[in-house]
Amino acid sequence: MSIDKVIESLPAMSADNREKLRSNAENLRDTGNQTQVSNAERVLQALIDTAAEEKQARYDELSAMSMAERVQDSFDSDPATKNEQRVITGIIDHPGLTPSALTSKCGLRSQSWRAYFAAMLKRREVVFWPDTPTNPMDIDGLMGLLIDVAEAESTLTMKPEMEATFRKLGYGTKKRRMAAS
User: Fold this and answer.
1) pLDDT by residue (tens digit) across 100-121?
2) Considering the chain, what is the average pLDDT of its residues?
3) Is-contact 158 108, C-beta < 8 A?
4) Is 40 exposed, middle or buried (0-12, 13-18, 19+ CB in 10 A)?
5) Under a CB-based contact definition with an 8 Å cutoff, are residues 165 and 73 in contact?
6) How far apart are the C-alpha atoms of 93 and 113, rounded to whole Å?
7) Which residue has better confidence, 172 or 137?
8) Is the pTM of this model over 0.70?
């Protein structure tokens, strides 16, 4: 296959195949003849360019989404682990509790509710906050995207639009009492 055809095929190539191609191109760049070195450098630059284009396209797509749509997208493509399911259901089913009370309600022993929730957010940070890594958000900021914190009591409640999204995804076992109007 010609180098031009290899480069044209990059967008459809799997991550594993791209990595193999990168490894081969780096090897040829370091050990090949002049033509191989030139072709290898073209392939390596095309890999960089393709990755940058895909990252920008994903950023543009995420930037156009609401936070609820980002949550839906994230959990559709990367379903929650069992512990993540527990912490999501815990805050939905027990709004207004402190993190330590949520830890107990979720039956967590080795780590706190906050640690599990924070790890879940960090794992999905690129979707929830697509400006990363040029504009990273700390864990409290990430948590604030999904939950409300009553500062005086240090209690936590899932934001209503996030709760609705998580419920559509199948989380939460208790029906939420809505405030009287």
Assistant:
1) 899 999 988 766 888 899 889 9
2) 87
3) no
4) buried
5) no
6) 14
7) 172
8) no
Structure tokens at 16: 């594993």
Q: What is the token pair recorded at 157?
A: 């409640």
Rounded to an integer, what distance in angstroms lies between the CA atom of residue 74 and that of residue 97?
A: 26
Token code pair at residue 1: 């296959």
Cα–Cα distance for residue pair 93/11, rounded to 1 Å: 43
Overall residue count recorded for the chain in this entry: 181
For residue 161, name the pLDDT band (cuts at 50, 70, 90): very high
> What token pair was written down for 17?
């195949």
Are the CB atoms for 112 and 133 separated by under 8 Å?
A: no
Instruction: Respond yes or no on whether the N-terminal peptide bond of residue 99 is cis (omega within 30° of 0).
Output: no
Q: Indicate the range of 22-31, 51-60, 140-149 predicted with least confidence.
A: 51-60
DSSP assignment string, 44-99: HHHHHHHHHHHHHHHHHHHHTS-HHHHHHHHHHHSPPPHHHHHHHHHHHHSTTB-H
**Predicted local confidence at residue 139, as pLDDT:** 80
